[in-house]
Structures are given as structure tokens and as C-alpha cells.
What does this fold into?
Amino acid sequence: MALLEPSTITILVLTGIFSSSIIFLISAGLQIVFGIQRILNLTVGSFYAIGAYVGITFINFFLKMGFSVVYGLLFLILAGLSLSFLGPTIERGVLNFVYKKEEAFQLLATFGLVLIFEDMIKLIWGSYPQISDFGILTYGEFRFLDTSFPVYYFLVIISAFLIAFLLEFFIKKTRQGKKMRSVADDIEMSEGLGVKVRNIYILSFTIGTVLGTLAGALIIPVTAAVLGMGIEAIVLAFAVVVIAGLGSMRGALLASLIVGLLQAFITFIFPELTTFVIYLIVIAVLLIKPTGLMGKEI
Amino acid sequence: MKKILSGNLFFTLILIALLALVPYIAPPFYVYLTLTSLAYIPVVIGFNILFGYTGLLSFGHGLFLALGMYTTAFLMRNYTMENLEVLILASALSAFIVGLGVGYICVKYTRIYFALLTLAFGMVFYTLLIKFTPITGGDEGLRITFKPLLLGLDFRYLPHLDFLFQPYYYYVLGIVIILTVLAYIIVSSHFGLSLKAIKENSEKAEALGINIKRFRLYSFVISAIYTSIGGALLAHITSHVTPIFSYWTTSGEIVFMTLLGGFTNFFGPIIGVFVYTLLRDFIMSTIIYWRILFGAALLLIIIFVPGGISEGLIRIYKHFKGA
Amino acid sequence: MGLLEVLEVTKYYGDFKALDNVDLKINRDERISIIGPNGAGKTTLLNLISGLLKPTRGKIILEGKNITNMSPSERCKLGIVKSFQIPSYFPNLTTLDNLKVALISSLGKSKNFLKSYQQDEEINNLSERALEVFGLYERRNFLAKDLPHGDKKLLDVASAFALRPKLILLDEPTSGVSIKEKRDLMGTIMSALKEMEISSLILVEHDMDIVFNYSSRVVVLHNGKILDDSSPELVKANKEVASVMFGS
Ligand SMILES: Nc1ncnc2c1ncn2[C@@H]1O[C@H](COP(=O)(O)OP(=O)(O)OP(=O)(O)O)[C@@H](O)[C@H]1O
Ligand SMILES: [Mg+2]
It folds into this structure.
């Protein structure tokens, strides 16, 4: 049995926090749409996958054009942001038609979208894994005790925190953010106060989309883009939001950390039990506190 | 009232006659698809008792499908259990036990929480199947290497496909007819009406003295048993059971078939099974990108005809009758 | 003889105290009306008695038995049934089937898995009779959601009556219908009470004529407290009640 030496623990903690930041972005995408539209948007997994594929295409293109690899992170962020157009398209084109339907149908509509995106990716990029020319060690390594980590990990962790902070600021402090909160609290009242709910819906869905695509773009120096990655991501993100409490942003931050760290450690100790343990926790949380760690009352 | 009933009966008899003829008139490939569809009928009927009649969307019904399949494969391999009747009963029994446990927890919640919880249980079961290799065969799953006895009769001398397309086909047809009639009786019973009441307005149902949690649990267990029996029938057709049947995409397929045919009508899901199985194979063999089509179909159904094909047919029928 | 006792019941919604230490004793064969301005806590009190809500403090006793922690369906079996202020029914079932659900439950038949409810003569007869009493028989095959508002209220009340409770709770059975219809509706309900031999009633009502005509005792709620509890004549004469109710 592999003992957990201090250096192993450090590595696991760090990779755990790194995956936490990616998981957080995806689950924040789920949360914001659930908070405003009350729809559990499975499509966010697909956005994550598309973000990864487009990120690779983007960065490989720029590197071929002769741009320095130093701008890599920038290109990835650009790739994620450039996909924001998907938000309004899907929101107006599909979700708009299911707001009045039963919850079950809303969930299923996003499941339909997942199926569609799954094949679109296959159509565009084929079935083989896509790899970027942007190596994880581009930004060098960071030495700590007797181990070393890619600096890129830190950059992503910092970016995720920055995004979390910006989101919080946006929702709490800006006019649009305040409107969003009022729609989340009471749609009819906000409409009465002159808030255009339609626009808020578009906005929140677009933010949800971009969070997904950004997460996907940022992960590609670490792993290849493969078919089915969207579905895997949604399974994890879903676990996070249940543990967090549907709709709670801070809960998502905490739960992402829990899930990311657990994932790192369990994968190391009992590789195949990861999903099992995470879902056992999901069930336990639903049983003990169905509203999640930080959710509002149902 | 009587007229509608006899009309229904008439169509049902014609449908059964047609199904009975399939092995004689259809090419082997289509016999195979029809047989697969038949095995899925208890699965969707079970799912819809929960969804269409009780108002609970399970996104983890693959669990019970896989449970029936693995129970069958496990008993055949490890205990050389041969009687199909015993295997079916064993699958029903395991679904009863697991359904009671899982259901007890799940019916504490409704709506999206119920959907999420069932999804989580499906995923847990999936990982268990992958992990407990000594019992479940892990990723590879289990192969069924011999043919079961049907009503004690030994058909092992027949080649595999002949076995499937003749004795086994009619055996499955018989079981499915029995299960369908039984389900129809259940949903038309006092109990069935009470379930509908719970779906329509659970607060009122409770105020009228119906123990809604208990009834949801009954519905859950019945649903699990049906789905598991479907799995037991399917196992001999695929002769290979794998964890994928418990994965959430399989659960999604069960939901899809039901919606496609129409959850508001008792016979809707059955139509859905046939259309889905036939179309999927046709589409998958001609178009690689069948998911796009299914996704789009799902969206169109949800947006325009939530009652699925059966609602569409009824609308068309009314249109022409009215014109 | 005592039928129901509400003992020192307090109910909070979050920080908001909707009922404050309410005591109420109800005898058999009494027809009580509860009145009070909007938000006084009338619906809350009925929901506590029927079990849809649990009190924050206090007890509810039925015929000497503590029922505070029982679910609505358990209380229903013991004979307490409530109709809803906002009519509650099964929208996609027919009027007739709505009643059948109630009857099946009250006759303890809802666990009958194999018998067709359509072919149960006892249920058919009883449900049709009840619909006749409430004047809904002509519309028995309408889906409940397609009924006019007044009929929806009647349907809600009818399904509560069908359970033949010991004590029936009616929450504003006439709200939302025109003044003229109100009298008819109330007349129908009262004759149904007699017909179906239901003798104990708690009625929440805003229309004072109805209150004073149909009840033997009036309870006045205000800000979650009982302001007065006596005969219609005495309550009518109480100045404080008048000022609370009519702001005069
Ligand atoms: N679920 C709830 N959560 C929070 N507050 C509630 C809730 N239900 C009722 N209230 C509050 O409790 C108070 C009493 O409500 P209740 O419905 O019992 O009044 P009522 O006497 O029936 O009024 P009305 O005549 O309008 O029907 C009101 O101020 C109401 O706003
Ligand atoms: Mg009220």
C-alpha cells in the first residue's frame, strides 16, 4: 500500500485544488442558471467540452501563426469568451420555449441539447482525442519541498478565484446583478418594477455558458479533449451543486473544493471508487440536508 | 364507453396477431429488433407507472434494468440456474428488495430532487458494477453462455438465433402480454386512480386521507419490478450484460422512449419502444450522427407535442373526424 | 361533549408569529365560524387543525387523543377534513373521478390494486349521489379544470364531504364568487351538511350575513390572537370586534 508521504500529500492537495477550480467554474455555470431560471442546465457539460475543443483549435492556430507560446493562457481565455454567443442562441432558441413547462421537461430539454452537442463535436472534430501544442510546462515549474508543480496550475487556480470574485461583485454590486437577484427572488414583482426578465434570462444563461466554455478551455494543457468529457463533467458538477445546495454560489465554491480534493485522494488510493464515493456523499447530503450545505429551504 | 373499450380491444388483438406473425414474415434482423422491443415494454411500462401515473421522473431507471440483467447472468453463471421462470422471479425479487430500499429514500422528495436522487443511485450502482469485478465482471460485464429452460423445456439443441426467434420470442411475447394486461388493470384500479390523484395534486390527495409517501413507494416498487423483469428478458437476447445499462444515458433512453410514444396514454410508451428501437437501428446504420436527430426530436416533442406520438395520432384522428 | 381541543397553540413562519397562544374548544354538533381581517391567521389555524402545518408550540387533541404530530392523511382517517380557500382539486380528472378519489380513500379501498374503480358499484352510486346533492351531476364528465370557479369551490367542498368527517373545516367556501351566487352556494352546502349528516363544522367566512345566519358560535381572530368567542348576537354587539372587522 502506497503510503501517503508528505510530498505525495502536497501533490494531491495541489492537483485537487486545481481540479476544484475547474469543477467550480462548471458548477457555478449550473448554479447561476438554476438560481435565475430554475432549470438544471445539463448543457453546461457540453459547453465545457466545446470550450476544450475550441480552445485547442484556437491555440494551435495561433501557435502556427507564429505567436509566442507565452500568450497561451490569453488565447485560451479568449477562446472561452468567444463562445459566449452560444448563450443567447440556446436561451432564445430553445430554453425560451420550455420555461412554462414542467420541471421534468425542462431537464429533458437540456438533456436533448447535450445529445445534440455531443454529436456536433464528433462532426467537427472527429472521434479521436484532440491534443494542444501548448504544453503544461510552458510557464515553468514551481518547486516546493521535494516536489514540483507546473506554474500553470497556479495560474488556473488564481483565474478561478478571480472569476469567483468578479461574479460575486457583479451579482452584489452592479445594476444588472441586482436585477438578477430580484428576478431570482420574485419574478412577478421584478416585472412589476420594470425589470426585463427576458434580458436577465439571456444574461444569466450567457454567464452560465461562458463559465462552462472557460473551464473547458483552461483544462486543455492538462488533458486531451475527448468525446464524452462533457458528460463526465456534468456528472461531477451535478454532484457539486447537490452538495452545495442548488443555486448557492458560495456553496459551490466549498463543495468544489471538497469534491476536487476527494477526487484527487480517492483516485490515488482506490482509483475506481471515485465516482462511487462522490455519489455516496451526494446521497448522504440529500438525505441529511436535502437543501445542500448552503442551499435555501425548498 | 363500451365502444371505445371494444375498439381498443380490437386493435390490441390485431397488434398481438401481427407480433405473433413477425418471426414468419420479417427478415431476421427485424425479428431481432422486435424481440428487443418486446423486452423493453415492461421497462417503459414500469417507468411510466412512476412518471406518467405518479408524477415522479426517475433519471436512474437504468439501475433496475441492469439489476434484472445482472441477477439473471449471475444466477446462471454461478448457480447454473436454468429455469427462465425462476430467473424472472429472482429478478423481480431483487428489484423488490432494492426498490424498497432505494424507493424508501427517494420518495421523501419529489420533482427535481427526486430526479437527481434517482440519478445518483443509478450512478452508484454503475460504479459498483464496475468495481466488484469478482461478482459483476467489471467493465467487461458477464456473458450468458447457455440457453435457459422455457417452462422446463430444453431448447439447447437449437442454434442461438433459432432459439431466440422461435421459442424464446413467443415466451417473451406471452410474458409481455401478461405484464401489460396486469399493468393496465393496476392503473385502472382504485389504487391507480389514487396514484393519479397524487400526481395531479398531492396536497389535496393527502387531505383526502391518502398516505402519499407510502403510495409513491408502492408505485416505485412496482415500477422497479417491471423494469427489472424487462432486464431479465433482455439479458438472454443480448447474452452479454454490461454496466452501461445502469449508466445515466441508458436511463435517459428509457425516458426518451416513453416521451416519444407519449406518457399521457397507457399505450404511448409501448409505441415509443417500437419506434425508438426500429428508428435507432435504421438511423444508426445510415447516419453516424444519430444523437443530433434524437436530441432534436426530444426538443421538438417537448416543445410541440409533450404527449408524444400517441397525442399526435389522437390530434390527427380528431382533425379528420372533425373535418 | 368535547370533540376537538386546540391548546396554547403558537405558530411562527420564520420570525413572523402568525398565531399566538390560541386556545379553542369545539363540541360535537357545533357550527363555529371564524372571522377576522385578512392575515389574522384563520387559514393558518385551519391548517394546523387539519395537519397541513405543524404548530411551533402547543397541542391539538381530538376526542382525547393527541394528534399534534399526525399527518393530514392520518387525521383524515380520524375524521377531520378540510376544504381549501383556494379551491383544491385534481385538474385533469373528471368531476366524477375527483369525487371517487375521496370516496375510495374514505372507504379504505385505495389499496385495491386489481379491481377496476369504474366498475365499483358502491363507489359509483355514492359519488353520483354526492354530485347530485351539490348540483354538479350534469357536469360529472367535465375535467375539473374546465369547471366554472363556483363549481370548483363546490367540488372541493363536495370531496371533503364525501369523506363523511366528524368535523369539517371550510375555508372561505364562497370566496371569489358573486354576492348572489354566494347565497346559493351556501344554501347548497348547508343542505348537503344535513343530507350527509355532518354535524360539526368550522367555517371561515368574510360575509357577515352568512356567518350570523349559519353559525351557533363565532370566534374572532385578530393578529393571531382570539379577540372574542361567543354567540353570534354577543359578537355582533362587541364594539372592539366591529372596529377590527370594519375599521369603524
Ligand atoms: N407560508 C407562509 N410563510 C410566511 N408567512 C405566511 C405563510 N402563510 C401565511 N403567512 C402569513 O401569516 C399571516 C396569517 O395568514 P393566514 O393565511 O392564516 O391569514 P387569513 O386569516 O387566512 O387571511 P385571509 O383572510 O387573507 O385568508 C399573514 O400575515 C400571512 O402573510
Ligand atoms: Mg385565509
